[in-house]
Specification:
The structure holds 2 protein chains of 2 kinds. Chain A is mainly beta. Helices cover 0% and strands 51% of the residues of chain A. In chain A, the strands form 2 sheets. In chain A, strands 2, 4, 5, 6, 9, 10 and 11 form a 7-stranded mixed β-sheet that branches. A 4-stranded antiparallel β-sheet of chain A has the order 1-3-8-7, with no helix packed on it. The radius of gyration of chain A is 13 Å and the shape is globular. By secondary structure, chain B is mainly β. Chain B contains no helices and 11 strands. The radius of gyration of chain B is 13 Å and the shape is globular. The termini of chain B are far apart. The mean pLDDT of chain B is 94. Classes of the chains: A mainly beta, B mainly beta.
Chain lengths: 113, 112
């Protein structure tokens, strides 16, 4: 039982490049979300999904896109990377929403030069 | 706008001590409050979830309480051990849609 798997674990990008952070869960969870964690700012919600085909914005959605074509996968796309997007990104999931324990992946550490 | 605060930011205690971590929130209209643990370089692990209708939850040496009217929660750790060293975060859900609002965490160090 792998839980929530995030890839890659580390990534360095140049300003303007695009990339996709992958998140997969094998627990048949309907709710998935993406957070970024920055020193002094805590964790902030980027986007979330309550099921396949349904996504919504969180606190800091600008510069990021998501889609949810399957229950298992919830990729996060950076359209044109900026230094302000340097952060640690966490994916989380739960059975049906935020009123249940959230399961987190180990994160992707992203540096934008 | 909901704001969540955790004080202190860091805490160091000797092994065996009982300790309390604090979490406060500005909007009492919450659905639940969750406590998490984060080890260095790792993701968050859910410890306890208290629904808004509950006063406390217990798991092993951990006990979390919730006082909605005063906007406070405490996480009590009994007989602390070096393995308890980690950052502890609280988060609340409420009328902000499908989102959790996190505090910035308390970094706990338990010395042998």
């Amino acid at each position: 039982n792998a839980g929530v798997t995030q890839t890659p674990k580390f990534q360095v990008l140049k300003t303007g490049q695009s990339m996709t952070l992958q998140c997969a869960q094998d627990m048949n969870h309907e709710y998935m979300s993406w957070y970024r964690q920055d020193p002094g700012m805590g964790l902030r919600l980027i986007h979330y999904s309550v099921g396949a085909g349904i996504t919504d914005q969180g606190e800091v959605p600008n510069g990021y896109n998501v889609s949810r074509s399957t229950t298992e996968d919830f990729p996060l796309r950076l359209l044109s990377a900026a230094p302000s997007q340097t952060s640690v990104y966490f994916c989380a999931s739960s059975y049906s929403g935020i009123n249940q324990p959230q399961h987190f992946g180990d994160g992707t550490r992203l540096s934008i030069l | 706008k909901q704001e969540v605060t955790q004080i202190p930011a860091a805490l160091s205690v000797p092994e065996g001590e009982n300790l309390v971590l604090n979490c406060s929130f500005t909007d009492s209209a919450i659905y639940n409050l969750q406590w998490f643990r984060q080890d260095p370089g790792k993701g968050l692990t859910s410890l306890l979830l208290i629904q808004s209708s509950q006063r406390e939850q217990t798991s092993g040496r951990l006990n979390a309480s919730l006082d909605k009217s005063s906007g406070r929660s405490t996480l009590y750790i009994a007989a602390s051990q070096p393995g308890d060293s980690a950052t502890y975060l609280c988060a609340v859900s409420g009328n902000q849609g499908g989102k959790l609002i996190f505090g910035q965490g308390t970094e706990l160090s338990v010395k042998p």
